[in-house]
Amino acid sequence: MTKRIQLTVSLPQAHRQVLALHSTVEQAAADAGLDPGLVELVKIRASQLNGCAFCVDAHTRDARELGESERRIYLLSAWRETELYTEKERAALALTEAMTMLPRDQDVPDDVYDQVTAVFTEQQYVALAWAATVINTWNRLGVTSRKPLPDVAA
């Protein structure tokens, strides 16, 4: 694989600002009472759709540290085909997919919006939408840079 310029390293001030945004959104999710495991599922699913190996790797490890099962992580790309995910998780994943696929679909359908707002408060919806936005930002930086995976013990 061709080595590429690492965008987050090459413009550290912008990287710090995205990190600050990330921290703000993480705090908003916590303040809204969102389950951290649910937020990790959102991050994993967006990263799968965007093909960001670095982020898939990081957030699957984070989800496991929060107690997420390997089975649910493995089946996340096929969440619609299983009964393993709660109504709230399904709504959050539908929103994540719609937001991630905006370049293709150019819409977050009303049924997805209605599904999410039926099971989450406004504050939780806002935090979820921002979480999807931030992970998509990280994905775009990681994929464009072909950010290498960290060395971790197997």
CATH superfamily: AhpD-like
Give the % helix. over 70%
Classify the fold: give the CATH topology.
AhpD-like
**What is the CATH architecture descriptor?**
Up-down Bundle
Number of domains: 1
Major sheet: none
Q: Termini, distance in Å?
A: 22 Å
What is the residue-mean pLDDT, rounded to a whole number? 96
Using the alpha-carbon principal axes, give the shape: globular
Query: Uncertain spans, ≥5 residues at pLDDT below 50?
Result: none
GO molecular function: peroxiredoxin activity
Protein name: AhpD family alkylhydroperoxidase
Keywords: Oxidoreductase, Peroxidase
Pfam family, one: CMD
Account of the 3D structure:
Residues 27-97 form the Carboxymuconolactone decarboxylase-like domain. This protein is mainly alpha-helical and 154 residues long. It has a single domain, classed as AhpD-like. It contains 9 helices and no strands. It has helices at 7-10, 12-31, 36-50, 53-65, 70-74, 87-100, 102-105, 110-119, 122-145. Helix 2 runs antiparallel to helix 9, helix 3 packs antiparallel against helix 4 (53-65) and helix 6 (87-100) crosses helix 9. The protein is globular, with a radius of gyration of 15 Å. The chain starts with 6 loop residues before the first helix and ends in a 9-residue tail after the last helix. The model has no long low-confidence stretch (mean pLDDT 96).
